[in-house]
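Backbone geometry tokens:
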Amino acid sequence: MSTWLKLLPIELSSIEEKEFVEPNTELRENDKVIGTMSDTVKQLYTLCHSLSKSASQCALDHKFCTDKTEKAELRARVGELIDKAKALDVIMWVLIKEDVKLWDGDIGIRTGFRVVTFETKDDIPPFLKLLGGLGL
């Protein structure tokens, strides 16, 4: 098992309530609040936000770096941080959907750590969009 995966529970549990990063999207007109984010989901969201921020900083450093070796290391680090943030994002959405017991439909998170559903104009069910994205 990778070191990152072994240390992930420790890293998540070290994120305290006062450190939680709140989603910045305001409640919209067609949103229906169906729940709030659990502390575990808040920790995942916060860590995902932190990894994304670090990836952005590394990308900026990469852009202005003149040393070839350091530039290659920064590029690799950006890829690593993005991949880890994506993995945590997927886990976070699975937990949110599991918490609110909603696996079919559009779901989002808003300020105040609110979980919402909303209507879209798209008539294609989400599971068919997923299958289409997989090339099946």
